[in-house]
Design a protein that fits this description.
By secondary structure, this protein is α+β, with helices and mostly antiparallel strands. It has two domains: about 140 residues, no CATH class; about 190 residues, Transposase Inhibitor Protein From Tn5, Chain A, domain 1 (Alpha-Beta Complex). It contains 15 helices and ten strands. Strands 1, 2, 3, 4, 5, 6, 7, 8, 9 and 10 form a ten-stranded mixed sheet that branches. The longest helix is centred in the last third of the chain and has 29 residues. It is globular. The chain starts with 6 loop residues before the first helix and ends with a helix.
């Protein structure tokens, strides 16, 4: 059975022009079949001559910006937006213009910062931006600039939704920016951070196993008012501290709901070869990353629809596989066409809402 029978219809919902949608559909099908973002792998998986396909992909990336298309995957009814960077290691790419050194100061690579909304225990990406030590040095900028750039891109979509971020976003400049832009935030607090009370005394972030502690209206580094909550539950190796401009209890609930975006990264790396992504120029690399995430989202969406048909709820297998794994690796059920059309209907509803913002 052809798993990709309705793929072009999914892609058509994202690209307004039929000609662009047709070309994008062929490339995205190639990505899913090759399970790789490398142009050579994709071109061999597409119908026709590999050399001609390779040139066709290059022309598409020159003429179309899939990063703008990716924004259409923003879920307007999502309760929050997640941001998290992942390392892309490129040990053999010393001469590539955008590849620098990772945190260890030795390994060659760069970062991709993803913004995503929660969907069925995974993340549905809607934006990404790249940066590296070399880019920062060349542009005389900082890592923070790229964080601001990414968040600014979806500010109009956020509304009252909070940004949910991990510890590496626990820094003063970002908090000041979010407060100034009136963006709600829920951020895992770095335990080494400095918090001060109203009398200017530093707050000790101590917590016993099994304890919950709330600190309302304390100063982060003496500059920004935040509410803080800490919890040390059974099974946690250490306490979890969260700071926010919302009510502390609400923020903790949101953070604990935060599905692990690392699961999205794991699928992108293990099932679609994210770590293989490498283009000569940064702009084309980001465009290819956006196409890969669109392919991921469509595969995930189809797989989650198939899950309900293939595995009864509350069974081990119902929770065992990701939607993308189900779509790529498992034999489709006899009613696959019906499931595919059902997925297309719900996918169309998502894109319809996003178009009113983009």
């Amino acid at each position: 059975m052809n798993k990709f029978i309705h793929l072009w219809q999914f892609v058509q919902k994202l690209f307004d022009e039929p000609q662009k949608a047709g070309k994008a559909s062929r490339i995205i099908e190639g990505i899913l079949k090759a399970r790789s973002p490398r142009l050579s792998d994709i071109s061999r998986s597409m119908k026709g001559q590999a050399t001609a396909n390779y040139k066709s992909i290059q022309r598409f990336l020159e003429q179309v910006d899939p990063r703008e298309t990716l924004l259409r995957l923003f879920q307007n009814d999502a309760p929050f937006v997640i941001g998290d960077p992942t390392e892309i290691r490129r040990p053999q790419a010393e001469k590539t213009e955008y590849v620098g050194r990772l945190n260890d100061g030795q390994t060659l690579g760069y970062w991709l910062l993803f913004l995503a909304t929660p969907y069925h225990g995974r993340a549905l990406p809607c934006h990404c931006v790249s940066y590296s030590s070399k880019i920062i040095q060349t542009e005389a900028s900082s890592r923070n600039q790229y964080h601001f750039e990414a968040f600014a891109k979806i500010k109009a979509l956020l509304g009252e939704k909070p940004l949910v971020l991990d510890r590496e976003f626990s820094y003063l400049e970002l908090l000041e920016n979010l407060v100034h832009e009136e963006v709600h935030f829920v951020i895992r607090l770095n335990e080494a951070a400095y918090l001060y009370d109203h009398e200017g005394q530093r707050v000790n972030l101590s917590l016993a196993n099994g304890e919950t502690r709330i600190l309302n209206k304390v100063f982060y580094k003496g500059q920004v008012f935040v509410n803080v909550i800490g919890i040390w539950r059974e099974g946690f190796s250490k306490p979890v501290w969260v700071m926010t401009d919302l009510k502390a209890e609400e923020a903790l609930d949101i953070y604990l709901q935060r599905m692990k975006i690392e699961e999205c990264f794991r699928d992108l790396k293990s099932l679609l070869g994210l770590q293989k992504i490498m283009n000569k120029h940064r702009d084309q690399m980001e465009k290819m990353a956006a196409l890969l995430m669109i392919a991921y989202a469509i595969g995930l969406w189809l797989g989650e629809t198939l899950r309900t048909t293939m595995f009864p709820e509350h069974t081990l297998k119902h929770k065992l596989y990701s939607g993308l794994f189900i779509f790529l690796h498992l034999q489709p059920p006899p009613n696959f066409i019906q499931c595919s059309l059902q997925a297309l209907t719900s996918f169309s509803s998502l894109i319809f809402h996003v178009r009113t913002f983009v």
